[in-house]
């Protein structure tokens, strides 16, 4: 009888601890809905777009303003022998913040898509990096929407042990009337790890156009290190379905971001085997390149001068070696001057900003 009571008591304690742990993990982690509205900040007096207007758009993964002075713990691979950093220093963050603001002010984009902005992360001293950037930009960049895609009050990983917050942002000189966050398919993980991992997303903003349909601007950041899984394919398919819906509306749109996927063509075979293992040989973006226009275009990103269009270089590597960042437009959209900003004239300071380069393009709204 005593043993039975002890067994019942032990089972009760086990169930209580399990339930308490489950509730705790749920309370400190992020659980977005599949589609949810996003608050539009500022810009009630911002100008409204006009039909036939020429615009300049820029997409940039700013690597949480960490700079390129370090190889961080999550970037190391087998055989790496160099120093490993836990986080950027306050000096790194201040210098990079100033440089990012400088480049944006020089490029003067009408619409700015930013990925990897920290907000509330221990590693970046809990700062709201978008707010810090806007303080250093001209006042016309006051309209924005944002969406988290990695968020937890505490991550028990031994190299983190603290809060994490990372978000997408769309900043506009023009009025934004509404925005949505779309949840993308998740990386396959065990049920515990999944709670603390990235919740990759697509951020959609609708900009009104006088006398015409809205301009739909989208910003995304796909999962990295997806080799051996179908994560990239599922995320690309979800985005393709959303674009098909917007096409049916007749709206003009632009999609940009860090896709962590190479362009179709020989780009995969050009990488060393140690880099190929992080990717799948089949290309998840093939359908987007076939259906829509891209910057850089497939021929630009895969042809003989592809190095001009490289957008990414790992902190552990000596130079850029791939294009991961793209802008996509419908076929009916007129694309103008476009380029990847890879350097500053007469200065090497630009190369210390991020492990990604900004992709920039002009385009014209239909009449």
Summarize the structure.
The chain is of the alpha+beta class. The chain contains nine helices and 14 strands. The protein has two domains: 1-30; 34-364, Endonuclease/exonuclease/phosphatase (Deoxyribonuclease I, Chain A).
Q: Radius of gyration, Cα only, in angstroms? A: 22 Å
Sequence stretches where pLDDT stays below 50 over 5 or more residues: none
| Individual helix count | 9
Q: What's the CATH class of the largest domain, please?
A: Alpha Beta
Provide the CATH topology of the largest domain. Deoxyribonuclease I, Chain A
Name the overall outline: globular
Quaternary state of the chains: single chain
Counted up, domains total 2
Mean pLDDT: 94
Q: How many runs of DSSP E, i.e. beta strands?
A: 14
Order of helices and strands: HEEEHEHEEEHEEHEHHHEHEEE
Helix content: 25-40%
CATH superfamily of the largest domain: Endonuclease/exonuclease/phosphatase
Beta-strand content bin? 25-35%
Gap between N and C termini: 85 Å
Task: Please describe the biggest sheet, giving its number of strands, its sense, and whether it closes into a barrel.
Answer: 8 strands, mixed
Determine the structural class based on helices, strands and strand pairing: alpha+beta
Any idea what the CATH architecture of the largest domain is? 4-Layer Sandwich
Protein topology:
Blueprint: H1 2-28, E1 35-37, E2 49-50, E3 54-61, H2 90-107, E4 111-118, H3 129-135, E5 143-155, E6 162-172, E7 178-183, H4 191-196, E8 201-210, E9 212-221, H5 231-249, E10 252-258, H6 267-270, H7 273-276, H8 286-291, E11 293-295, H9 298-302, E12 325-329, E13 334-340, E14 359-364
Parallel strand pairs: 2-8, 3-4, 9-10
Antiparallel strand pairs: 1-7, 3-14, 4-6, 5-6, 7-8, 8-9, 10-12, 11-12, 13-14
